[in-house]
Amino acid sequence: xxNTVELTNVSKNFKGFSVKNMNLQVKQGxxxxxxxxxxxxxSTTIKMIMNLLKPDDGEVKVFGLDYKAHxxxxxxxxxxxxDGNVFFEGLNLKDIKRIVGPAYKNWDDALFxxxxxxxxxxxxxxxxxxxxxxxxxxxxxxxxxxHAELIIMDEPTAGLDPIFRRELLDLLQEIMIDSNRxxxxxxxxxxxxxxxxxxxxxxxxxELVFNKSTIDIAENYALxxxxxxxxxxxxxxxxxxxxxxxxxxxxxxxxxKEVKNIFxxxxxIERASxxxxxxxxxxxxxxx
Length: 288
Ligand SMILES: Nc1ncnc2c1ncn2[C@@H]1O[C@H](COP(=O)(O)OP(=O)(O)OP(=O)(O)O)[C@@H](O)[C@H]1O
Known about the structure:
GO terms for molecular function: ATP binding. InterPro entries: AAA+_ATPase, ABC_transporter-like_ATP-bd, ABC_transporter-like_CS, ABC_Transporter_VariousFunc, P-loop_NTPase. Keywords: ATP-binding, Nucleotide-binding, Transport. Pfam families: ABC_tran (PF00005). The structure is a single chain. Helix content is about 30%, strand content about 30%. It has ten helices and 14 strands. The protein has a six-stranded mixed β-sheet with strand order 6-7-8-3-9-10, sandwiched between helices. Strands 2-1-4-5 form a four-stranded antiparallel β-sheet. Mean pLDDT is about 90; it is low at about 285-288. Bound molecules: adenosine-5'-triphosphate. Adenosine-5'-triphosphate (ATP) binds near residues 14, 17, 38, 39 and 44. Adenosine-5'-triphosphate binds near residues 14, 38, 40, 41 and 42.
C-alpha cells in the first residue's frame, strides 16, 4: 500500500467555509507537513481523517480501509496528537495509562515508561500542573506507546519554545526510523518542515493547492527578481504570482527551467522558502 491516507473528492460545508472536493494522498513511510493560513481548513481536514467529523461528500480511506466497516481497526493503528489537553486534567500519567492502555491491542507498557523517562515526565503529578510543552510530550508518549503506524498531529509545535520545538522535531525524526511509519502534521511554523518533511501539502481556503515532495519544491520553485522592462504577457506565463513595484518585479515561479529559458541571466533567481510560496500562491494561478 503506497498511501496510508487517501481522501477522494472530499467536501465539508460549514456556514461561510467549505473544504472543497479535496483529493489528498499521504504517502506511507514519509513525513508530510500540512500547511496553510489560519482558517484554511487544516483542522477540519485532520478531523475528517480521524473520523471526528464526517465529510458531506467523498471518501476517506486510512490504511486502505473505510471507517464505516473498520473504525476500530483503523484507530488501533493511529496515534493522534493535537494542540490542547486531551486528558482529564485532574489525572496523572499513571491513571491515564491505566485508562488508555487497555483500549489498544498493541499497548506497550515498557515503551510508555521509556518515553516518560526520555521526556522527563512525572508520573504522579496531575496533568493540569504540566506546562504546555510537558502536555504535548505526554500526549505524544501516549500516542507512541501502542506502536502506531500513522501519527497524526494537529499543530504539535504551536506555543512551544524554540529549543523544545527542536527537541520535538529530533524526536519525530527518531520515530521515523521505523520505515513503516507515516507522519502527517499541520503547522504554521514552516521552518519546522525544512528539517523533517518529505512532502508538503498546502491548503488554501479549503482547497488543496498542492501536495509535493520537498525535493520537487526545491527544484522547481524560486523567487525571480528583475526590471519591469523584461515583462510582457508571454514572459509572465512563467510566474505563479507577481508583485510589481517602481523598482522592478518580484515573482514566484514553479518552473525555474522555463524562467532561465525566457530570461537567461537578466533576472535574479533566489530560493523560495515555504513561507514565500504560501505568501505568493494564495491558492490560485494569478497575474498582476
Ligand atoms: N464545527 C464547525 N462549525 C462551523 N464552522 C467551523 C467548524 N469547524 C471549523 N469551522 C470553520 O472552518 C474554517 C476552517 O477552520 P479550521 O479549524 O479547519 O482551520 P485551520 O486551517 O485549522 O486554522 P488554524 O490554523 O487557525 O487552526 C474556519 O473558518 C472555522 O471557523
